[in-house]
Amino acid sequence: MSTTDRPIALTPEEMAAQAVAVLRANDLGGWTKAAPRLYPHQWSWDSAFIAIGLARLDTRRAAQELRVLFAAQWATGMVPHIVFNPAASGYFPDPERWGITTAPARPSDALTSGMCQPPVHAIAAHAIWAIAQERGEAEAADATAFLREIYPRLLAWHRYLATERDPERSGLVTIYHPWESGADNSPAWDSALAAITVEDLPPYERHDLKHADPSMRPTMAEYDRYLWIVEVMRRGRYDEATTYRTNPFLVKAVWFSAIFVAANDALLEIAAIVDAPDADRAHIIEWRDRGLRGLDERWEANLNLCLDYDLRAASPIRVQVMGGFAPLVAGHLTPERRAAVLATLDGPAWLGHPRLRWPVPPSTSPEGPGFDPRRYWRGPTWPVMNWLFWWALRRAGETERADALRRASLNQLRGGGFGEYYEPFTGEPLGSLDQSWTAAMALDWIAEQ
Ligand code: 2M8
């Protein structure tokens, strides 16, 4: 074997050094682009995960990541899914296409998209604080001051999700677009997208295909629908009630809702640290408990998974995707639910699948319809989602499973490169390289060793 084809196997120290280099290279000065070329702006949930990794280096810089994101918060409380870097071009849809200038609730001094992503932020803010407690008095005091500053913004964000995004008070968050789920082209959205008629869509040119292999990205048919939904929301000036009435895509998303439940637990801890009023805490508990009840109703005993619900079609979405593990992320598992979720996770449709290169959860089950090992959220494994599973398993007291997942996840990254996602059967890195959240998660895992 020559030096060039010998597989790289980074030591933890080498991997940490490379992760730091990636985060430095993607740093825009207080905020971080999601990836060097494919994603040259700040993405909402990427930034929350990035902040968790950055906290291992510098808790003040980690706090700044969230501060910049929340400075672009909308008047409704919504945290936008992209905050645009005015110095970067080459991503589409760009600020002009989003056209938020006519939206009354837009922020006054930031260019953003008009939708949101899963609310990992309270979890990240609390993680920054917890790490700072080990770093001496000054850093600990700064982190507490940061929580005091960010708490009202986090509360407004959660209130928005619990009210505007759940007018039915079902406990489940409604998403307006597959991009809001974070798992953009998951087979879970296929039927809802197929039901959409694209009308007078202005022409557009995709930039993502210049930076990534088209066979791994969403199809043109999917993109037309993605952009048509943006067009409908833009024409409605991103008004929530209008969107709820007119949007062709309305889905109760269980993965998003489960993250919201877990984030409400984190927000409760923050509320205690900052001495928030009792009335706030009562609201947060109500949102969390309602979420747990909502998820419970979406549990599908035949598949042993939780299912998303298409509001437009009035029907559950029977697809085996990673989001089905929502109860694990939400936590507060009953013994029966814990046993069922873990049996599914260990079983042949998931971690026990004989062809998996590493025992880490694929975004879509290889046994399910719509699985594709190379295309984006239709099968590849996502290190950042492994992190969420790891975090949830640890929170549930499943220490051995959590450790095994962390080891497998780090092994997957030992080839270097910090891929956006990985081929589940070969372990090949795919999508963008030097992806910020992958580097951040590696840092957090290494620090846990
Ligand atoms: C991907 O999403 C963007 C749109 O938001 C895209 O494909 O252009 C998703 O993987 C999403 O979860 C992620 O936040 C974003 C940036 O990493 O890329």
Q: What's the helix count?
A: 18
Regions with pLDDT < 50 over 5+ consecutive residues? 1-6
- Classification by helices and strands: mainly alpha
Q: Give the SSE string.
A: HEHHEHHHEHHHHHEHHEEEEHHHHEEH
What's the helical proportion of residues? 40-55%
**Globular, elongated, flat, extended or rod-shaped: what is the shape?**
globular
Q: For the residues shown, what is the average pLDDT?
A: 96
Distance between the terminal alpha carbons, to the nearest Å? Answer: 32 Å
**How do the strands of the widest beta sheet line up side by side?**
3-4-7-8
Count the E strands: 10
Largest sheet: 4 strands, antiparallel
Task: Describe it.
The protein has 18 helices and 10 strands. It has 449 residues and is mainly alpha-helical. The strands form 4 sheets. Strands 3-4-7-8 form a 4-stranded antiparallel beta sheet. It has helices at 12-25, 44-55, 59-70, 95-98, 121-132, 137-163, 178-181, 190-194, 208-211, 220-235, 240-246, 254-273, 278-297, 326-330, 335-346, 383-395, 399-413, 436-447; strands at residues 42-43, 82-83, 174-175, 251-252, 299-300, 305-306, 309-310, 315-316, 421-422, 429-430. The chain is globular. The longest helix has 27 residues, at 137-163. Residues 34, 39, 43, 45-46, 81, 179, 182, 184, 208 line the site of (2R)-3-hydroxy-2-(alpha-D-mannopyranosyloxy)propanoic acid.
